[in-house]
Design brief:
Distance between the termini: 115 Å
Strand content: 5-15%
Shape: elongated
Order of helices and strands: HHHHHHHHEEEEHEEHEEHEE
Number of domains: 3
Largest sheet: 5 strands, antiparallel
Oligomer: single chain
Structural class: alpha+beta
Number of helices: 11
Radius of gyration: 40 Å
Helix content: 40-55%
Number of strands: 10
Length: 376
Protein backbone atom coordinates (compact mmCIF):
# COMPACT_ATOMS: atom_id res chain seq x y z
CA UNK A 1 0.00 0.00 0.00
CA UNK A 2 1.60 3.33 -0.99
CA UNK A 3 2.59 5.74 1.74
CA UNK A 4 1.80 8.90 -0.22
CA UNK A 5 -1.55 9.29 -2.00
CA UNK A 6 -1.79 10.26 -5.61
CA UNK A 7 -3.63 13.53 -4.92
CA UNK A 8 -2.72 16.43 -2.65
CA UNK A 9 -5.09 17.06 0.29
CA UNK A 10 -7.43 20.05 0.28
CA UNK A 11 -5.43 22.82 1.93
CA UNK A 12 -8.35 24.63 3.66
CA UNK A 13 -9.62 21.35 5.02
CA UNK A 14 -6.12 20.44 6.18
CA UNK A 15 -5.79 23.79 7.92
CA UNK A 16 -9.11 23.35 9.67
CA UNK A 17 -8.25 19.83 10.82
CA UNK A 18 -4.83 20.97 12.06
CA UNK A 19 -6.35 23.88 13.98
CA UNK A 20 -8.95 21.61 15.58
CA UNK A 21 -6.20 19.11 16.46
CA UNK A 22 -4.01 21.75 18.13
CA UNK A 23 -6.90 23.16 20.18
CA UNK A 24 -8.22 19.85 21.46
CA UNK A 25 -5.03 17.75 21.71
CA UNK A 26 -2.48 20.19 23.06
CA UNK A 27 -1.54 18.00 26.08
CA UNK A 28 -0.65 15.10 23.75
CA UNK A 29 1.19 17.54 21.48
CA UNK A 30 3.25 18.81 24.42
CA UNK A 31 4.15 15.26 25.48
CA UNK A 32 4.97 14.38 21.87
CA UNK A 33 7.24 17.43 21.57
CA UNK A 34 9.16 16.42 24.70
CA UNK A 35 9.46 12.82 23.46
CA UNK A 36 10.59 13.99 20.02
CA UNK A 37 13.26 16.22 21.54
CA UNK A 38 14.49 13.37 23.75
CA UNK A 39 14.68 10.98 20.78
CA UNK A 40 16.59 13.55 18.73
CA UNK A 41 19.10 14.08 21.56
CA UNK A 42 19.56 10.31 22.00
CA UNK A 43 20.19 9.75 18.30
CA UNK A 44 22.76 12.54 18.16
CA UNK A 45 24.37 11.19 21.34
CA UNK A 46 24.63 7.75 19.69
CA UNK A 47 26.43 9.38 16.78
CA UNK A 48 28.92 11.07 19.14
CA UNK A 49 29.44 7.75 20.93
CA UNK A 50 30.29 6.16 17.59
CA UNK A 51 32.89 8.83 16.92
CA UNK A 52 34.50 8.11 20.31
CA UNK A 53 34.47 4.34 19.64
CA UNK A 54 36.65 4.92 16.57
CA UNK A 55 39.50 5.92 18.90
CA UNK A 56 39.40 2.75 21.03
CA UNK A 57 41.46 0.65 18.63
CA UNK A 58 45.16 1.04 18.03
CA UNK A 59 46.20 3.66 15.46
CA UNK A 60 46.75 2.29 11.95
CA UNK A 61 44.53 -0.69 12.65
CA UNK A 62 40.81 -1.33 12.17
CA UNK A 63 39.17 -3.38 14.93
CA UNK A 64 35.60 -4.26 15.79
CA UNK A 65 35.15 -1.26 18.09
CA UNK A 66 36.11 0.99 15.24
CA UNK A 67 33.74 -0.81 12.86
CA UNK A 68 30.85 -0.24 15.27
CA UNK A 69 31.92 3.36 15.82
CA UNK A 70 32.16 4.10 12.11
CA UNK A 71 28.68 2.65 11.57
CA UNK A 72 27.10 4.73 14.34
CA UNK A 73 28.97 7.87 13.32
CA UNK A 74 27.22 7.79 9.93
CA UNK A 75 23.86 8.52 11.57
CA UNK A 76 22.45 11.56 9.77
CA UNK A 77 20.65 14.59 11.14
CA UNK A 78 17.74 14.09 8.71
CA UNK A 79 17.12 10.60 10.10
CA UNK A 80 17.20 11.94 13.68
CA UNK A 81 14.59 14.58 12.84
CA UNK A 82 12.41 12.11 10.91
CA UNK A 83 12.56 9.58 13.77
CA UNK A 84 11.65 12.27 16.32
CA UNK A 85 8.66 13.36 14.22
CA UNK A 86 7.55 9.75 13.80
CA UNK A 87 7.59 9.22 17.57
CA UNK A 88 5.65 12.46 18.04
CA UNK A 89 3.13 11.35 15.38
CA UNK A 90 2.43 8.13 17.22
CA UNK A 91 1.86 9.97 20.49
CA UNK A 92 -0.07 13.03 19.31
CA UNK A 93 -2.09 11.34 16.52
CA UNK A 94 -2.23 14.31 14.06
CA UNK A 95 -4.73 14.58 11.14
CA UNK A 96 -4.43 11.78 8.61
CA UNK A 97 -2.92 13.93 5.84
CA UNK A 98 -0.18 15.27 8.13
CA UNK A 99 0.33 11.84 9.64
CA UNK A 100 0.83 10.26 6.20
CA UNK A 101 3.32 12.98 5.23
CA UNK A 102 5.40 12.51 8.40
CA UNK A 103 5.29 8.74 8.07
CA UNK A 104 6.36 8.92 4.42
CA UNK A 105 9.34 11.13 5.26
CA UNK A 106 10.29 8.75 8.06
CA UNK A 107 10.22 5.72 5.74
CA UNK A 108 12.46 7.49 3.21
CA UNK A 109 14.89 8.61 5.91
CA UNK A 110 14.90 5.17 7.60
CA UNK A 111 15.51 3.25 4.38
CA UNK A 112 18.44 5.40 3.27
CA UNK A 113 19.87 5.55 6.79
CA UNK A 114 19.67 1.77 7.02
CA UNK A 115 21.45 1.52 3.67
CA UNK A 116 24.17 3.82 4.95
CA UNK A 117 24.61 1.73 8.11
CA UNK A 118 24.73 -1.52 6.12
CA UNK A 119 27.30 0.00 3.74
CA UNK A 120 29.58 1.11 6.56
CA UNK A 121 29.19 -2.19 8.39
CA UNK A 122 30.11 -4.26 5.33
CA UNK A 123 33.07 -2.05 4.46
CA UNK A 124 34.22 -2.03 8.07
CA UNK A 125 34.14 -5.83 8.24
CA UNK A 126 36.04 -6.09 4.95
CA UNK A 127 38.72 -3.61 6.02
CA UNK A 128 39.02 -5.08 9.53
CA UNK A 129 39.49 -8.57 8.15
CA UNK A 130 41.96 -7.36 5.55
CA UNK A 131 43.89 -5.17 7.99
CA UNK A 132 43.47 -2.12 5.75
CA UNK A 133 43.21 1.34 7.29
CA UNK A 134 42.17 4.21 5.01
CA UNK A 135 43.45 2.36 1.96
CA UNK A 136 47.05 2.48 3.17
CA UNK A 137 47.72 -1.13 2.24
CA UNK A 138 48.95 -2.21 -1.18
CA UNK A 139 45.44 -3.42 -1.93
CA UNK A 140 43.81 -0.13 -0.95
CA UNK A 141 42.72 0.34 -4.56
CA UNK A 142 40.84 -2.96 -4.38
CA UNK A 143 39.14 -1.77 -1.20
CA UNK A 144 38.05 1.38 -3.07
CA UNK A 145 36.50 -0.79 -5.79
CA UNK A 146 34.68 -2.80 -3.13
CA UNK A 147 33.44 0.47 -1.61
CA UNK A 148 31.97 1.53 -4.96
CA UNK A 149 30.32 -1.85 -5.63
CA UNK A 150 28.84 -2.12 -2.13
CA UNK A 151 27.59 1.47 -2.22
CA UNK A 152 25.92 0.94 -5.61
CA UNK A 153 24.25 -2.32 -4.55
CA UNK A 154 23.02 -1.08 -1.17
CA UNK A 155 21.66 2.26 -2.36
CA UNK A 156 20.10 0.69 -5.46
CA UNK A 157 18.14 -1.65 -3.20
CA UNK A 158 17.21 1.29 -0.95
CA UNK A 159 15.96 3.28 -3.94
CA UNK A 160 13.82 0.37 -5.13
CA UNK A 161 12.32 -0.02 -1.64
CA UNK A 162 11.51 3.70 -1.42
CA UNK A 163 9.94 3.83 -4.88
CA UNK A 164 7.88 0.75 -4.12
CA UNK A 165 6.57 2.36 -0.91
CA UNK A 166 5.70 5.52 -2.86
CA UNK A 167 3.37 3.44 -4.99
CA UNK A 168 5.49 3.24 -8.16
CA UNK A 169 5.79 0.03 -10.19
CA UNK A 170 9.41 -1.08 -9.80
CA UNK A 171 9.12 -4.44 -11.59
CA UNK A 172 10.59 -3.07 -14.81
CA UNK A 173 13.36 -1.27 -12.94
CA UNK A 174 14.37 -4.42 -11.06
CA UNK A 175 14.33 -6.48 -14.26
CA UNK A 176 16.42 -3.86 -16.06
CA UNK A 177 18.99 -3.76 -13.27
CA UNK A 178 19.21 -7.56 -13.28
CA UNK A 179 19.67 -7.85 -17.04
CA UNK A 180 22.18 -5.00 -17.05
CA UNK A 181 24.17 -6.63 -14.26
CA UNK A 182 24.29 -9.96 -16.11
CA UNK A 183 25.42 -8.26 -19.32
CA UNK A 184 28.18 -6.35 -17.58
CA UNK A 185 29.30 -9.49 -15.75
CA UNK A 186 29.57 -11.52 -18.96
CA UNK A 187 31.39 -8.74 -20.81
CA UNK A 188 33.97 -8.22 -18.07
CA UNK A 189 34.21 -11.68 -16.54
CA UNK A 190 38.00 -11.78 -16.99
CA UNK A 191 38.46 -8.47 -15.22
CA UNK A 192 36.02 -9.43 -12.46
CA UNK A 193 37.79 -12.79 -12.07
CA UNK A 194 41.09 -11.04 -11.37
CA UNK A 195 39.34 -8.48 -9.15
CA UNK A 196 37.74 -11.19 -7.03
CA UNK A 197 41.12 -12.93 -6.89
CA UNK A 198 42.55 -9.67 -5.52
CA UNK A 199 39.76 -9.67 -2.92
CA UNK A 200 40.66 -13.26 -2.06
CA UNK A 201 44.22 -12.08 -1.45
CA UNK A 202 42.79 -9.43 0.90
CA UNK A 203 40.84 -11.96 2.93
CA UNK A 204 43.04 -15.06 2.80
CA UNK A 205 46.36 -13.12 2.90
CA UNK A 206 48.58 -15.79 1.30
CA UNK A 207 51.25 -13.11 0.83
CA UNK A 208 51.87 -9.38 1.12
CA UNK A 209 54.08 -6.86 -0.59
CA UNK A 210 57.72 -7.60 0.25
CA UNK A 211 57.17 -11.35 0.85
CA UNK A 212 59.33 -13.88 -0.97
CA UNK A 213 57.12 -16.50 -2.58
CA UNK A 214 57.69 -19.52 -4.76
CA UNK A 215 55.37 -21.03 -7.38
CA UNK A 216 56.07 -23.37 -10.30
CA UNK A 217 59.73 -22.70 -11.11
CA UNK A 218 59.72 -19.06 -9.97
CA UNK A 219 60.93 -17.66 -6.66
CA UNK A 220 60.94 -13.92 -6.08
CA UNK A 221 59.88 -10.91 -4.05
CA UNK A 222 56.36 -9.53 -4.38
CA UNK A 223 56.77 -5.92 -5.48
CA UNK A 224 53.17 -4.92 -6.19
CA UNK A 225 49.69 -6.42 -5.90
CA UNK A 226 47.25 -4.74 -8.27
CA UNK A 227 43.60 -5.18 -9.13
CA UNK A 228 44.37 -7.42 -12.11
CA UNK A 229 47.94 -8.68 -11.70
CA UNK A 230 50.79 -9.21 -9.26
CA UNK A 231 54.39 -8.24 -9.99
CA UNK A 232 57.15 -10.54 -8.72
CA UNK A 233 60.89 -9.96 -9.12
CA UNK A 234 63.20 -13.01 -8.75
CA UNK A 235 66.86 -12.82 -7.77
CA UNK A 236 67.87 -12.86 -11.45
CA UNK A 237 66.42 -9.35 -11.80
CA UNK A 238 63.63 -9.66 -14.37
CA UNK A 239 60.03 -8.73 -13.50
CA UNK A 240 57.34 -11.42 -13.68
CA UNK A 241 53.75 -10.18 -14.13
CA UNK A 242 51.05 -12.76 -13.50
CA UNK A 243 47.25 -12.39 -13.34
CA UNK A 244 45.83 -12.67 -9.82
CA UNK A 245 43.41 -15.45 -10.74
CA UNK A 246 46.14 -17.46 -12.45
CA UNK A 247 48.47 -16.95 -9.48
CA UNK A 248 45.92 -18.14 -6.91
CA UNK A 249 45.27 -21.28 -8.98
CA UNK A 250 48.88 -22.34 -8.30
CA UNK A 251 50.47 -23.87 -5.22
CA UNK A 252 52.24 -20.93 -3.53
CA UNK A 253 55.00 -21.24 -0.95
CA UNK A 254 55.47 -18.14 1.20
CA UNK A 255 59.14 -18.35 2.09
CA UNK A 256 59.10 -15.17 4.19
CA UNK A 257 56.58 -16.59 6.65
CA UNK A 258 58.59 -19.66 7.57
CA UNK A 259 59.69 -19.57 11.20
CA UNK A 260 63.02 -21.29 10.55
CA UNK A 261 65.29 -22.58 7.80
CA UNK A 262 66.63 -26.14 7.76
CA UNK A 263 70.08 -27.17 6.59
CA UNK A 264 71.02 -30.69 5.56
CA UNK A 265 74.60 -31.93 5.32
CA UNK A 266 75.65 -35.36 4.02
CA UNK A 267 79.11 -36.09 5.46
CA UNK A 268 81.06 -38.91 3.82
CA UNK A 269 83.85 -40.46 5.92
CA UNK A 270 86.31 -43.14 4.87
CA UNK A 271 85.62 -46.85 5.21
CA UNK A 272 88.63 -47.03 7.54
CA UNK A 273 86.70 -45.06 10.18
CA UNK A 274 86.07 -47.36 13.20
CA UNK A 275 82.42 -48.26 13.87
CA UNK A 276 82.75 -46.83 17.38
CA UNK A 277 83.61 -43.43 15.87
CA UNK A 278 80.66 -43.65 13.48
CA UNK A 279 78.42 -44.34 16.48
CA UNK A 280 79.78 -41.21 18.24
CA UNK A 281 79.21 -38.91 15.25
CA UNK A 282 75.60 -37.90 16.11
CA UNK A 283 76.74 -36.66 19.54
CA UNK A 284 79.75 -34.90 18.03
CA UNK A 285 77.60 -33.16 15.43
CA UNK A 286 75.01 -32.14 18.05
CA UNK A 287 77.73 -30.51 20.15
CA UNK A 288 79.05 -28.48 17.23
CA UNK A 289 75.61 -27.40 16.03
CA UNK A 290 74.53 -26.23 19.48
CA UNK A 291 77.89 -24.54 20.07
CA UNK A 292 77.15 -22.44 16.98
CA UNK A 293 73.76 -21.40 18.40
CA UNK A 294 71.62 -23.47 16.03
CA UNK A 295 68.86 -26.01 16.72
CA UNK A 296 69.99 -29.61 16.27
CA UNK A 297 67.34 -31.71 14.51
CA UNK A 298 68.82 -35.14 13.86
CA UNK A 299 71.92 -36.98 12.74
CA UNK A 300 72.80 -40.60 11.99
CA UNK A 301 74.28 -43.16 9.64
CA UNK A 302 72.64 -42.84 6.22
CA UNK A 303 74.25 -44.96 3.51
CA UNK A 304 77.05 -47.25 2.34
CA UNK A 305 78.33 -45.27 -0.62
CA UNK A 306 80.84 -46.43 -3.25
CA UNK A 307 83.72 -44.52 -1.69
CA UNK A 308 82.38 -43.42 1.71
CA UNK A 309 80.25 -44.11 4.73
CA UNK A 310 77.58 -41.37 4.67
CA UNK A 311 76.36 -39.68 7.83
CA UNK A 312 73.42 -37.27 7.55
CA UNK A 313 73.01 -34.10 9.65
CA UNK A 314 69.98 -31.79 9.83
CA UNK A 315 69.76 -28.61 11.90
CA UNK A 316 67.52 -25.53 11.97
CA UNK A 317 68.38 -21.85 11.93
CA UNK A 318 65.72 -20.11 14.11
CA UNK A 319 65.21 -17.25 11.66
CA UNK A 320 63.54 -16.89 8.25
CA UNK A 321 66.25 -14.44 7.15
CA UNK A 322 68.32 -15.77 4.26
CA UNK A 323 71.51 -13.98 5.30
CA UNK A 324 71.31 -15.41 8.84
CA UNK A 325 70.77 -18.91 7.48
CA UNK A 326 73.65 -18.58 5.03
CA UNK A 327 76.04 -17.40 7.76
CA UNK A 328 74.90 -20.17 10.11
CA UNK A 329 75.49 -22.83 7.47
CA UNK A 330 79.02 -21.51 6.94
CA UNK A 331 79.72 -21.38 10.67
CA UNK A 332 78.52 -24.93 11.35
CA UNK A 333 80.43 -26.29 8.36
CA UNK A 334 83.71 -24.76 9.58
CA UNK A 335 83.07 -26.07 13.11
CA UNK A 336 82.57 -29.62 11.77
CA UNK A 337 85.77 -29.43 9.75
CA UNK A 338 87.75 -28.37 12.83
CA UNK A 339 86.19 -31.03 15.07
CA UNK A 340 86.79 -33.80 12.55
CA UNK A 341 90.42 -32.70 12.21
CA UNK A 342 90.83 -32.75 16.00
CA UNK A 343 89.19 -36.21 16.24
CA UNK A 344 91.24 -37.62 13.36
CA UNK A 345 88.14 -38.37 11.31
CA UNK A 346 88.87 -38.30 7.60
CA UNK A 347 86.45 -37.22 4.89
CA UNK A 348 86.20 -39.64 1.99
CA UNK A 349 86.57 -38.72 -1.64
CA UNK A 350 86.25 -40.87 -4.78
CA UNK A 351 89.24 -43.25 -5.02
CA UNK A 352 90.18 -46.10 -7.35
CA UNK A 353 92.92 -48.76 -6.99
CA UNK A 354 94.51 -50.22 -10.14
CA UNK A 355 96.06 -53.73 -10.02
CA UNK A 356 98.67 -54.70 -12.64
CA UNK A 357 99.20 -58.37 -13.50
CA UNK A 358 102.32 -60.05 -14.92
CA UNK A 359 102.06 -62.38 -17.95
CA UNK A 360 101.97 -65.37 -15.62
CA UNK A 361 98.97 -63.89 -13.79
CA UNK A 362 100.72 -62.72 -10.64
CA UNK A 363 100.01 -59.22 -9.41
CA UNK A 364 102.69 -56.58 -9.84
CA UNK A 365 102.49 -54.21 -6.86
CA UNK A 366 103.05 -50.50 -7.64
CA UNK A 367 105.22 -49.93 -4.55
CA UNK A 368 108.80 -51.10 -4.28
CA UNK A 369 109.58 -53.49 -1.46
CA UNK A 370 106.04 -54.85 -1.30
CA UNK A 371 105.74 -58.54 -1.89
CA UNK A 372 103.58 -59.69 -4.75
CA UNK A 373 100.34 -61.43 -3.98
CA UNK A 374 99.91 -65.12 -4.69
CA UNK A 375 98.41 -66.20 -7.96
CA UNK A 376 94.75 -65.31 -8.41
Amino acid sequence: MPILTDSLPDLPQLYAEALYWVRHHWPQIAVAAVAAFAVYVLVRAARRTGIRLCDRDQPGRIGWWRVAGRTLSRTGRFFAIALALEIARRIAVPPSALSDLIHGLFIIAAVFQGALWVRELILGIVEAHAGVDNGGDTLGSAINIVRVLVSFAVFAIALVVVLDNLGLNVTGLVAGLGIGGIAIGLAAQGIFGDLFAALAIIFDKPFRRGDVISFDQTTGTVEEIGLKSTRIRPASGELHIIANKQLLDKSIQNITRRDHRRTRFVLGVTYQTPPETIARLPDILREEVERCGQRFAQAGFANFNASSLDVELEFDTPSPDFAAWYAARHQVGIAILRRFAAEGIEFAYPTQTTFTAAPDGTLVMPYAGVAASPER
